[in-house]
Amino acid sequence: MVILSNFAENLSALMSEHNLKAPALAKALQTDRSNITRYLRGERFPVFYGFMAILEYFNVSADVLLGLCDYAPETEFLPRPPFGDRLRTVMNETKTTQYRIERETNISGASMYNWLFNKSVPTVENLVKLAKYMDVSVDYLLGRIQ
Fold it and tell me: How confident is the prediction along the chain (146 residues), in pLDDT tens digits per residue?
């Protein structure tokens, strides 16, 4: 997947800019060093909360980190609301129904239900899929920007 390699490359660049090695970042994020190594190798994305921790630690745009855009203006990111609440808001703004998302993105109804009612959170891949489908940035979908 293209954005996985972009994520790995951009995370590596951020770590270099901050003169951080994998063990130090792992400690700061309270995760195993092996997880950081897997991210840097482009083997996998972090889980939702790990991804959010990276965004907050480096104070960086999700869209830039994922390589979906090259540059984001400096901004003060907003506190992230519960994902289901934000997803519902963005769906209303974009006049998108749960049924259409499920049908046109192949995201399961069970996943959508769980996200909408704050029972679980999506993977990074599904965050990107939802943002693209609703034609919004990942940061906007997360409620980090208005």
Answer: 558 999 999 999 999 999 999 999 999 999 999 999 999 999 999 999 999 999 999 999 999 999 999 877 778 899 999 999 999 999 999 999 999 999 999 999 999 999 999 999 999 999 999 999 999 999 999 999 98
Classify residue 25 by burial, with Cβ atoms within 10 Å: 0-12, 13-18, 19+.
buried
Alpha carbons 22 and 7: distance in angstroms, whole number = 15
* Cα diameter, the chain: 46
pTM above 0.85, yes or no: yes
Single out the residue of 29, 108, 132, 12 nearest to residue 65, CA to CA: 12
List the end-to-end C-alpha distance of the chain, in Å, as a whole number: 28
Alpha-carbon span 62 to 13, nearest angstrom = 14
Instruction: Enumerate residues 6+ apart whose C-beta is below 8 A from 1.
Output: 125
- The domain that holds 23 is classified in CATH as 1.10.260.40
Q: Of the candidates 37, 65, 93, which is a domain's last residue? A: 65
